[in-house]
Amino acid sequence: MKRRTFLQAAAGAGMTAAAAGTAGLLAGCGRSDAVPQSPVQFVPGRAMPWMNWSGNQSCTPAWRAAPASEAELVDVLARARGVVRAVGASHSFSAVVPTDGTLVATDLLSGLVSHDPATLRAEILAGTRMHALGPMLHGVGQSVPNMPDMDYPAMGGAIVNSVHGTGQRFGSMSSCVTALTLATPSGQLIDCSAERNAEVFHAARTSVGALGIISRMTLQNVAPFRLVETTRIETTEEVLDEITKRCAMHRNFECMPLPHSSLCVTIATDEAGPHDTPTGEDDPQAVKSLRTLWQAVGWMPGMGEAAYDKLLTTFMAGEGSQVRVGQSYEVFPHVRVVRFREMEYTVPADAGPACVREILRTIRERRLPIAFPLEYRYVKADDIWLSMFEGRDGCSISVHQYGDTDHRAYFAEIEPIFWKYGGRPHWGKIHTLDAARLAALYPRHWKDFQEVRRSLDPQGRMLNPHLKHIFGA
Ligand SMILES: Cc1cc2nc3c(=O)[nH]c(=O)nc-3n(C[C@H](O)[C@H](O)[C@H](O)COP(=O)(O)OP(=O)(O)OC[C@H]3O[C@@H](n4cnc5c(N)ncnc54)[C@H](O)[C@@H]3O)c2cc1C
Fold first, then answer.
1. How does the average pLDDT of the chain come out, rounded?
2. pLDDT tens, 333-354?
3. pLDDT value at position 44?
4. Which of 205, 348, 377, 470 has the fewest CB atoms within 10 Å of its CB?
5. Ligand 1 pocket member 394 (CB < 6 A)
6. Are residues 279 and 382 in the same domain?
7. Within this chain, do residues 258 and 140 fall inside the same structural domain, yes or no?
8. Which range of residues forms the domain containing residue 99?
9. Distance 90 CA to ligand 1 centre (A)
10. What is residue 152's three-state secondary structure?
11. Ligand 1 center to 388 CA (angstroms)
12. Ligand 1 centroid – CA 88 distance (Å)
C-alpha cells in the first residue's frame, strides 16, 4: 500500500471509529473542550469581533479602519481611539494584534509602487500579500530570494516578525528590506534606510508592530528562478547526523521529524533544470491522517508507540519521493488547511541537532500524546536589532498542536528546552517570555530598540497588553 493510500485509509471509517474512543488518550495535553472558545454573537450595532487564523486570539475593536493611501493612514492614526494595532493576514499565533481600540487593516495598501531593473529593487505597499507579490514581481523580472512555507501573510505583518523560510545562505524576509516608510502614532511619515534615519530603520524592520504602521518598503530582489522541490521520508537520526552536508547540497533544506517515530519528512529545494518534472501529489491533510493513525494505534489493546513507529516505518519508509516544479513563488508555499497552534524558537545554528534531539526524546520519554510533526529549518544571520537571527546564524525549531486540542501542557514541557539552548522566540508564535527574559536574549540592541520605541510612541498608543508584557512598558 502506498504512503498516501495508507494514510488516507487510516483517516477512513475504520480507524476514525477506533479513534472515537480515544478522547482520553490526549488527556495529558488537555481536551479540545478545555480550549476557551470565542463566541461570535451577533448584536446589532455592536462592533464585529476579529479572530486570528488559528482561533486562539480574538478581540472586539471599537473601530476598524482600512486606509487606502498614506494620507488616510496618517489621518486614521490621528483620529484613532484606544490602543492602535495594525493587522495583515491575521496569521500570527501570539497576541500581537488584539485591541479593543482601533484595528487598522492594511489590505487596501497593496501593490507595486516602482521597480528598478538595474538594481533588482522594488518598492511595494506594505499590505501586499505574499501570494500577490510573487506574480507581481515576476511581471517586472524580479523575485524574492526566499520565502516561508506558505504565502498568506501581508508583507508588513511578515517583516515586523522576521518571518523566514529555510536555507543557510538566506536571511529572513526582513533582511531583504532596504528602505521603508513608517507612519508613526503621532502622525509623522518617516522614510528610513541604512543611510537615512538609520536607527528607525534598524528598529522598524523587526518591530513586532510597536513603532507605528509601515506603509511601504523596498525589497532587494533577485532575477526570477524556477525551483524543484523534493519531499522524501527518511530516518531522522541519519538526516541529523549529516545535516551540514545536506544543507550544503541544497539551496534550501528542511526536515520535519515525526514524534514517536524514527522517521522524518525532508524537503530539499534546488534551482530546477530543464528536465525536472513533477511526480506525486501534495497532501495538505496528511497531518490529520497522522493523528488519526496515532489515536487508532493507542486505542488498540497492547499497541503503543513502538507499534505506531513500526506501522509508519512499514508503510512510509522507502516510499518514492514527491516532486514539485515551478516558479519559486509557486514552489516555496504550501496549502495549509489543517488549523494548528505553533511555538517556534531559534537557537544558535550549531545547537540545532542537540536541541531537536532533546525535544524528540522528551516527547518519547514523557509519553506526550503528540502526532503533529516538528519543523526544523536554518536561517542566515542578520544585523536587525530584534530579529531572532541578529548576530548569529539560526536554527528555527517549531512544535505544533492541532487547533482543536489544547496546546498548553505540551508547549510548557518543551519551552524550557529551547531556553536551555539560548533560543529566541518567534515574535508571531506562542511563547511565555516577558521583557526581562527577552532583554537578556538581545543584549546588543534591546535598549536601543526601547529608546526608538519611546521616542516614536511616547504615550504607548501601539501597546496592547501583550506588547506591554514583552517590552516591559
Ligand atoms: C499556517 C501558518 C504557517 C506559517 N508559516 C510560517 C513560516 O513558514 N515562517 C515564519 O516565519 N512564520 C510562519 N507563520 C507565522 C506568520 O507568518 C507570522 O506570524 C506573520 O507575522 C503573519 O503575518 P500577517 O500578515 O498575518 O500578520 P498579522 O498576524 O496580521 O500581524 C502580525 C504583526 O504585524 C503587525 N502589522 C501588520 N501589518 C503591519 C504594518 N503594515 N506595519 C506595522 N505592523 C504591522 C501587527 O500589528 C502584528 O503585530 C505561519 C503562520 C501560519 C498560521
1. 91
2. 999 999 999 999 999 999 999 9
3. 80
4. 348
5. no
6. yes
7. no
8. 50-105
9. 7
10. coil
11. 14
12. 7
